[in-house]
Amino acid sequence: MTRKIKILCMADGGISEDTYAPMRELEKYGAEVTIMVDESIREYTAMMDRMHACEYEGIKAAVTYEGLLNVVEDYDILCVHMTSVNREIIERGKNLKVVACLRGGYENVDVPACTERGIKVINSPWRSAPAVADFTVGMMIAENKNIARAHLAIMEGGWRKKFKNQAYIRNMDRCTVGIVGFGYIGRRVIDRLKGFGCKIVVHDPFLDPKVIADAGETPVSLDELLAVSDFVSLHLRYSEKTVKFFGEEQFRKMKPTAYFINTARAGIVDTDALIKALQEERIGGAALDVFDEEPLPADSPFRKLDNVTLVSHMGGTSADTMACSVEIGYQDIERYLKGEEMLNVRN
Length: 347
Prior knowledge:
CATH superfamily of the largest domain: NAD(P)-binding Rossmann-like Domain
Order of helices and strands: EHEHHEHEHEHHEHEHHEHEHEEH
Number of domains: 2
Number of strands: 11
Strand content: 5-15%
Radius of gyration: 22 Å
Structural class: alpha/beta
Mean pLDDT: 96
Largest sheet: 6 strands, parallel
Helix content: 25-40%
Distance between the termini: 32 Å
CATH class of the largest domain: Alpha Beta
CATH architecture of the largest domain: 3-Layer(aba) Sandwich
CATH topology of the largest domain: Rossmann fold
Oligomer: single chain
């Protein structure tokens, strides 16, 4: 009798047992699906702490979950969200063929160790793209139209009508938006902005401008983008190549009325340079969802500024994001079970 392919799905505070339930449909291909909970990150806050640590420290921040270590050797396919798939887990998983990390990143998976063992690593690269794209446009409007500042004033008993950017509160259809990073999120932000009638220019340091042009957009140099944009929206991945990619030189090249939007990663930006640009009012303002230290320290200079909108790393937060993660992973595992090539292989 042919042995069934065994699939283990590790639930946590992000992707719950219920969210994983559609994976059971893979049993129609003769697979056996088990759903288990990583109790060490069952709570949402614990899961987010792990995610943040892994994004900055990599696999060394991913602690082995003993419950998985005890059973992993029985499975061919392992699906995780933030559960660690480090060398210890990989070496115990004698039958592993595929590790599916159902996130945009895969820092909690030791990809080189998987490659050594011939284990394919897949992920869910655009899982949060719709949520972050929606959020990014919302941040642009909130900062430009002073929505958060007016709300705060009312909640504190006031009724504020005058703001630092009074002279350049803009209609979106008269604005040029510079998109830095033409990936899953950047492209979706563009789609949404077109509905507002914005002019769009795009720069991606890792893409041939022809790719951008072939997609119907306007590729420009970074300097040109900074010179013409009323909003500069950052959508690069955080990596060794993008650490402090955006710094004092770039802020000095922006329009003094332009807004800087970061819903990507804090490490891509020189935070001190951004704070200085805002303090000296060399740019029109900023809207930020990500910070070098989270939660933002009580003494952070950002808290004293009146030309910035601050949000607590919520860009990808959506009930639909987690369901989307599972859908993308399901489709690739389905391809594998049908003998087809998987699309989101990372090694």
